[in-house]
Design a protein that fits this description.
This protein is α+β, with helices and mostly antiparallel strands. The strands form 4 sheets. It has a 16-stranded antiparallel beta sheet, covered by helices on one side. A 7-stranded antiparallel beta sheet has the order 6-5-4-3-7-8-9. One of its GO terms (biological process) is spermatogenesis.
Length: about 700
């Protein structure tokens, strides 16, 4: 095993040296690959940063104060010590030049700012804003940090930058919001550096993890008894499994070699991201933030391969820990001088190892370093206008490719229909066969919030926020034409009839109710064919009513009534002129009572009358009292049911009319989409009036 590891290290070292000694053409090819693999506009590499106008920038951008000059001297002195102690490590990223060509220490480039937007008070909102607002540019050389680091104000103005620009802006917002955040200079995988997410599942498709709440008052289960013999057998099995684990370790080494072959620059690709330590803002656990995506990652994530240094607006730390296993085993206790070497020591201690000939000069500089504090940031206050915050995309739109999925995002009011986000799910890895499309909308007056389109079943489901004219919550359909199959859900608490859902087709309609005083929860209506085979005419108003064949209703148990008087199901057979009743059961009953009125109405010379005979009234009531066997009681019950049948017909016709009205309104809303504007957004309201 040791021989295999030595061979692997030798091969890796040879690959690293060969990659470092390659010509500039290899670096250009690598840069081009990075650009092609990221979903950014094609004109990004053509942007010339050297042509930007810096004449309007303040003086602190173009010169250094005495404090900043002293800081640069301390940084150079710190770098000399670092290179003496760690001669094999790469140079630190300490004081690159800014947009005016002036060297500035990286900590002074941070500008902690709290912006007046509620979304930017949490880390997720800040990360999402930075990843959406800026356009990614690759590093000129993927294995070395950039030679320049521009101010966050300039990056915001041109809305583009590399990973270091993303990180500095995001860290400035997080520190301003109260987080213990740090910029990280390290190494990451090819996918992280090039924003290649085609091998990752879409975050919109991930199911939220269920949080299990533990209570100190829960009953403690005693431990189960165990057998010593079984423990001995398990120990033997572990010894046998030890050989299997060795094989797995060999397989891991082989996979690492394969990854190195796939990416010859693995472990050398420079990347910058944000570290958020636990403690402040009630952060329970330390985590990373990838500024390109705005997603959080665990500190043990295998995508991050090592850390060179970190810094915030007050100090700079160098990682002195071994990163052979990536960031898995790193300690982020910055007060530990063995793991992290600090530049401006808080305990009046610099690096101990230094050449003897410079010890006298060291003593003089230590006296100044003891009282030295980080200068204030040279960057102007970060300002983002309401219009800029609203339009978070440089070109109005951004695309993200994932495994079998694509996400598209637009700025509000960019699309006339209010579309702000679209998720397309594919059946294949080449993203050619569309399975489902989900769209999100904002600021629509019809309160449409989301739309799901299933390309296989051709079903469309619209979801509405509260406030629609007909209190719609969801609408599933294939076409907005009537009698083509519609499922409508409502905000039932706002309706007088407590209707929750209505399912309507050409032959039937089912309504579901919640919380009604009469305990009705389902009404099912069956329709017959129209006379002369007539169908719906060309206009929605010219519709011939469908004949009602049957109305069936279901009721919940009413505890205030005895079971033999509480109807569970009643069926009105309109064409057969009959009524069927089924009653609830008591706890000790086994068979429900039933009553049927068959063709109870007969016509004579005097007109319509109600007759009750043994042939027209059939009942089975084994648990009922003598009152229910009385003919007068049955007569009044039938008379009441006849009145309710007429009322039910009227309600069914009203439901049909409501369906037609909703479909007509939905058609008009889709044909002429209207967007709403805030009363405080004067610019949008004036634009709409014009």
């Amino acid at each position: 095993m040791e021989a295999l590891e030595e061979k692997e290290e030798a091969e890796q070292t040879a690959e690293d040296l060969s990659s470092l000694d390659t010509s500039d053409s290899l670096q250009n090819v690598e840069t081009n690959l990075s650009v092609d693999q990221v979903s950014v506009p094609s004109d990004v590499p053509g942007f010339d940063w050297s042509s930007i106008d810096t004449s309007h920038l303040p003086d602190q951008y173009k010169t250094n104060t005495w404090m900043e000059k002293q800081l640069l001297l301390i940084a150079d002195h710190f770098l000399q010590q670092y290179t003496h102690v760690c001669p094999d490590r790469k140079p630190l990223f300490l004081h690159p030049v800014n947009e005016c060509g002036v060297e500035k220490f990286v900590s002074t480039t941070l500008r902690p700012t709290l912006l007046p937007y509620p979304e930017l008070y949490n880390w997720s909102g800040c990360a999402s804003f930075v990843s959406n607002y800026l356009t990614r540019e690759p590093l000129k050389c993927p294995i070395t940090p950039p030679s320049s680091l521009y101010s966050p104000t300039t990056i915001l103005k041109y809305q583009r930058g590399n990973c270091f620009d993303f990180t500095v802006l995001l860290c400035s917002l997080l520190i301003g919001a109260g987080y213990d955040a740090y910029c990280v200079h390290g190494y990451a995988t090819l996918e992280i550096c090039t924003l290649d997410q085609t091998k990752e599942p879409c975050p919109l498709l991930r199911k939220p993890e269920e949080v299990k709440k533990s209570s100190k008052y829960r009953v403690k289960i005693p431990p189960e008894p165990y057998s010593k013999f079984e423990l001995q057998q398990k120990a033997k099995k572990k010894e046998e499994i030890g050989g299997v684990q060795k094989k797995e370790e060999v397989e891991e080494v082989v996979t690492e070699l394969e990854e190195a072959k796939r990416d010859p620059l693995r472990g050398l690709r420079v990347h910058a991201w944000v570290l958020v330590l636990s403690g402040k803002r009630e952060v329970p656990e330390t985590f990373f933030i990838n500024p390109f995506t705005g997603n959080s990652h665990s500190t043990t994530d295998e995508c991050f391969l090592g850390i060179e240094s970190i810094w915030n607006d007050r100090n700079y730390w160098v990682n002195m820990q071994d990163c052979r296993n990536g960031c898995k085993d790193l300690s982020f206790d910055l007060s530990d001088g063995i793991c992290w070497e600090i530049m401006l020591p808080q305990n009046n201690k610099l690096l101990e190892e230094f050449p003897e000939k410079d010890k006298d000069d060291m003593k003089e500089k230590e006296e100044t370093d003891k009282s030295f504090e980080m200068p204030v940031s040279w960057v102007d206050r970060i300002n983002i206008s309401c219009r800029e915050f609203e339009n978070q995309y440089s070109q109005g739109k951004k695309e993200f490719l994932y495994m079998k999925a694509k996400v598209e995002k637009w700025a509000p009011y960019m699309n006339g229909n209010g579309l702000v986000e679209r998720l397309t799910i594919y059946a294949d890895f080449d993203c050619t066969e569309v399975v489902e499309v989900t769209e999100w909308f904002k600021n629509r007056e019809d309160m449409l919030e989301m739309r799901e389109v299933n390309k296989q079943t051709e079903l469309i489901t619209d979801y509405f926020s509260p406030g629609h004219l007909h209190l719609l919550k969801a609408h599933t359909y294939r076409s907005l034409e009537p009698e083509t199959g519609h499922t409508m859900e409502f905000y039932h608490k706002a309706r007088d009839d407590d209707l929750q859902k209505r399912v309507e087709s050409a032959t039937e309609m089912t309504e579901y109710f919640v919380g009604r005083d009469d305990f009705l929860h389902i009404r099912h209506v069956e329709f017959g064919k129209r006379e002369n085979g007539m169908n719906v005419a060309g206009t929605r108003t010219d519709v011939k009513l469908r004949p009602i064949v049957q109305i069936k209703e279901y009721f919940h148990r009413n505890p205030e009534k005895p079971a033999d008087e509480d109807v569970e199901e009643r069926i009105f057979m309109i064409t057969d002129d009959s009524i069927w009743l089924t009653y609830h059961l008591e706890a000790h009953d086994t068979i429900a009572s039933k009553v049927a009125f068959l063709r109870a109405i007969q016509r004579d010379r005097k007109g319509e009358e109600i007759f009750l005979t043994r042939d027209t009234c059939i009942k089975y009531q084994p648990w009922s009292s003598e009152k229910h066997k009385n003919v007068l009681y049955q007569y009044k019950l039938l008379e009441k049911l006849r009145k309710e049948q007429k009322e039910l017909k009227r309600q069914v016709r009203e439901s049909e009319a409501e369906v037609l009205d909703i479909l007509k309104i939905r058609g008009d809303e889709e044909a002429n989409v209207q967007l709403s504007f805030s009363i405080y957004n004067t610019a949008r309201r004036e634009q709409r009036q014009e």
